[in-house]
C-alpha cells in the first residue's frame, strides 16, 4: 500500500488493498509472472538456438517455500518438528525454458514432498520434450514413464542411489581410477538396475572441498563418517 502511494500519490491502507485482492487480482499477477518469465527466458533461448532443434520443449520444475503466520496452520501446515504449530506454503512451478511459458503452477502445504509434486509433471510431458529434474524429484519409475512417452530427462543423482557399470562395477571405482575430467558411459541405477547414460564431470577443487565439508557435517550429525566411496562422489558432478 505504501508503494502504491509513492507511485500514484494515492492514499490506501493495507486493509483497503487487501479487500481488492480477489480472483481478478490473482489472475493479473499470474499473467504478469508469465509475461516476465517469457521475456527473461526468450533471451536465453536465442543464445542457444540449437536446443530448439533438438527438443520441442525443455521443462524445468522447482519449488520454493514461504512461511505463514501460525494461525494458518490448519489450512497450510508446515514442519514444526513436533515442538510447535507452524504454517507455510510450497509453490511448485514448471516452465518451458525455450519459450519462458509457464506450463504448470500449484500451491501445496509446506509439508508436501517434491517427489509427490513431481508426479503431476509426468502427465504433462509430450513426445520430444526434455524434462530437467533436481534431486528432490528423483524417482526412477517416473523416468521410465517419461521414456515411454518418447521424451527425455536429465537429472542430478542423489548420493544414496547405487550406480554400476553394465559389467557390475561400482561407479566410485571408475571415478577413482579415471584421469579424465569427463566420463560418459552407460550405467544402471538403483536396485532396479535401470539402464541409462551417465555423464560425470570432475568438480573444481574449491567445489569438491565444499561438497566434502557439507557431506561430512551431515554425516556427523547422524553419527556417521563418510566412506571412501562417498568422498569420491563429492569430487564429481553426476548427471
How would you characterize this protein structure?
This protein is an alpha+beta fold. Helices cover 39% and strands 26% of the residues. The chain has 10 helices and 9 strands. Strands 3-2-1-4-5 form a 5-stranded mixed sheet. It is globular. The chain starts with a helix and ends with a strand.
What order do the SSEs take from the amino end to the carboxyl end, as H and E? HHHHEEEHHEHEEHEEHHE
Q: Kindly name the structural category.
A: alpha+beta
Spatial strand order of the main sheet? 3-2-1-4-5
* Strand count: 9
Helical content stands at 25-40%
How far apart the termini lie comes to: 46 Å
Apparent shape: globular
Poorly predicted runs of 5 or more residues: none
Beta fraction: 25-35%
Biggest sheet overview: 5 strands, mixed
The number of helical elements comes to 10
Determine Rg (CA atoms, Å). 22 Å
> What is the average of the pLDDT values?
88
Give a nutshell description of this structure.
This protein has 239 residues and is an alpha+beta fold. It has helices at 2-8, 14-19, 23-47, 49-54, 114-117, 119-124, 140-148, 171-177, 205-221, 228-233; strands at residues 57-68, 87-96, 102-109, 129-133, 152-155, 163-165, 182-189, 194-202, 236-238.
Lay out the secondary structure.
Elements: H1 2-8, H2 14-19, H3 23-47, H4 49-54, E1 57-68, E2 87-96, E3 102-109, H5 114-117, H6 119-124, E4 129-133, H7 140-148, E5 152-155, E6 163-165, H8 171-177, E7 182-189, E8 194-202, H9 205-221, H10 228-233, E9 236-238
Parallel strand pairs: 1-4, 4-5
Antiparallel strand pairs: 1-2, 2-3, 6-7, 7-8, 8-9
Amino acid at each position: 500500500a505504501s508503494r502504491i502511494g509513492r507511485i500514484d500519490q494515492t492514499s490506501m491502507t493495507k486493509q483497503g488493498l487487501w479487500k481488492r485482492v480477489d480472483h481478478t487480482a490473482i489472475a493479473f499477477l499470474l499473467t504478469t509472472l508469465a509475461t516476465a518469465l517469457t521475456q527473461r527466458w526468450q533471451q536465453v533461448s536465442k543464445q542457444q538456438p540449437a536446443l530448439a532443434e533438438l527438443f520441442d520443449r525443455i521443462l524445468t520444475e522447482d519449488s520454493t517455500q514461504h512461511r505463514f503466520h501460525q494461525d494458518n496452520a490448519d489450512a497450510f501446515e508446515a514442519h514444526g518438528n513436533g515442538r510447535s504449530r507452524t504454517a507455510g506454503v510450497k509453490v511448485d512451478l514448471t516452465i518451458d525454458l525455450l519459450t519462458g511459458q509457464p506450463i504448470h503452477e500449484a500451491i501445496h502445504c509446506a509439508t508436501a514432498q517434491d517427489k509427490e509434486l513431481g508426479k503431476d509433471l509426468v502427465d504433462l510431458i509430450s513426445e520430444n520434450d526434455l524434462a530437467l529434474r533436481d534431486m528432490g524429484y528423483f524417482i526412477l519409475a517416473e523416468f521410465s514413464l517419461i521414456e515411454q512417452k518418447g521424451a527425455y530427462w536429465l537429472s542430478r543423482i542423489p548420493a544414496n542411489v547405487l550406480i554400476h557399470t553394465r559389467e557390475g562395477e561400482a561407479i566410485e571405482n571408475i571415478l577413482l581410477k579415471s584421469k579424465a575430467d569427463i566420463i560418459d558411459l552407460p550405467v544402471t541405477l538403483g536396485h532396479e538396475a535401470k539402464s541409462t547414460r551417465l555423464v560425470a564431470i570432475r568438480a573444481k577443487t574449491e567445489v569438491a572441498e565444499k561438497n566434502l565439508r557439507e557431506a561430512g557435517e551431515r554425516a556427523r550429525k547422524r553419527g556417521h563418517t563418510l566412506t571412501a566411496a562417498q568422498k569420491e562422489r563429492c569430487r564429481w558432478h553426476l548427471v
